[in-house]
Amino acid sequence: MRVNFTVNGRPQEADDVWEGESLLYVLRERLGLPGSKNACEQGECGSCTVRLDGVPVCSCLVAAGQAEGRDVVTVEGLADYARQRSCGTGARGGTSLDEARGWQAGRADSQTGEGTGLSPVQQAFIDAGAVQCGFCTPGLLVAADEMLERNPNPSDADIREALSGNLCRCTGYEKIMDAVRLAAARQSEGV
Amino acid sequence: MDFLRPASWEEALAAKAEHPTAVPIAGGTDVMVEINFDHRRPEYLLDLGRVGDLYEWEVGEDTVRLGASVPYTAIMENLRAELPGLALASHTVASPQIRNRGGVGGNLGTASPAGDAHPALLAAGAEVEVESAARGTRRIPVDAFYTGVKRNALQSDELIRAVHIDKADGPQQYSKVGTRNAMVIAVCAFGLALHPRTRTVRTGIGSAAPTPVRATAAEEFLNAALEEGGFWDNGKIITPSAAKRFADLCSAACNPIDDVRGTASYRRHAVGVMARRTLTWTWESYRGARRATEGAA
Ligand SMILES: Cc1cc2nc3c(=O)[nH]c(=O)nc-3n(C[C@H](O)[C@H](O)[C@H](O)COP(=O)(O)OP(=O)(O)OC[C@H]3O[C@@H](n4cnc5c(N)ncnc54)[C@H](O)[C@@H]3O)c2cc1C
Ligand code: FES
Ligand code: FES
User: Fold this and answer.
1) CATH class as words, domain A113-188
2) What ipTM is given for this predicted complex?
3) d(C-alpha A47, C-alpha A57), whole Å
4) What pLDDT score does A115 carry?
């Protein structure tokens, strides 16, 4: 079957999709967006977290057909998404598939991520040393960014709660906590 | 495999009537795991995601009509006052990502003895509204809904439309044993609701029998003990011996198995502990509320 949906602000079409396929598989294998990771395929690890109509979900548990007509944001589109949000403009320029596939972090020399192609939460993860192997990072970024959008001044308990569906096998979580606190602090300082 | 995408409730019922083997998919948090691991290859997937009615709830005089697909997150955020037991239970489900998708309709569809909604529904009192194109609507008391391990009372042409849950008329609690706070399937779980209006206590036990069950003998014992001692009126502390007897009877209502998550004897023991604790918590809050109203009067 064919699935038409919006990915990172641009309309996309995936063809030859098997009816039992997950949104995660479509993103990775049909659209060539490997940012969302596949680790468990059973909702346990959160490394496949994307936003579906704004809501964080495990894309491995969304049937591809359920995404028809919906709006998906992946880690590849996070920087653009965050930029549009902070500009307060409704219309998003979006991230094309080519840009997304060629996505690379710029030099980590800006606090805000501006000019580096990073969202503030991505920059904070780098600055706080919250990335080791990096496999959990995309899912954590999407989940953390969504929490900061809802709750700009989270308590530690709020952060733990919001990230409780994301497993990390490397960091022991402390640096991840630091990164989210840092992103929140920078956000509230308006830098 | 075919992917059926009804745009309305009527279309969904028609599709289920035409293809009784079709597997409904709501949040997909149970169905997709089975498909991803090749445990299930249904001929038809029936996506309920476009049936808007299923995502709505109505707060009535005595009950809440909760659409089958209302996600746990919405229950926690919007229905804490009306359905405190279910809101607490919802908060223990998995993770934010899963709670954003999964809901009570899917929990009932799967009918796992470990499903967290069940003890809360049993304790609060609820009816499941199901419908088929051929026979229309019927309401199944939740006590009669669970018919076996992962089996329920649905016919092959029926879909769950909503759950009618009694609004809380007193304190409710939900308690769950697991290895950590997030992402835990219950080793066992316990829901308890005080119903001061009818002067009754209701319970629900999860993961300690082939189906979710009520501890009816324990309820009857406690209802009689509270009545006899005038506890609902005098607001006294429930005697330790009565609380212990209640806990023992709750343990006795279990029919658990040994499995990877826990042994049968641990489950029985833990259910007793949770029964005593949830009774203490709810009764304390009932007494507190009584004192507050008396103080005001
Ligand atoms: C990582 C992980 C952790 C989990 N942790 C918990 C937990 O802690 N506690 C818990 O209770 N559950 C847990 N679950 C299981 C699951 O999230 C719940 O059972 C949830 O309520 C299912 O809802 P859903 O909408 O996603 O159901 P779906 O997967 O869409 O459907 C589940 C079943 O119900 C049927 N169904 C759905 N809607 C209807 C309807 N309207 N009419 C008829 N049949 C219907 C489907 O055909 C299917 O058989 C977990 C799952 C995962 C993946
Ligand atoms: S791959 Fe989806 S939650 Fe692990
Ligand atoms: S950095 Fe390796 S899993 Fe988190």
Assistant:
1) mainly alpha
2) 0.95
3) 10
4) 53
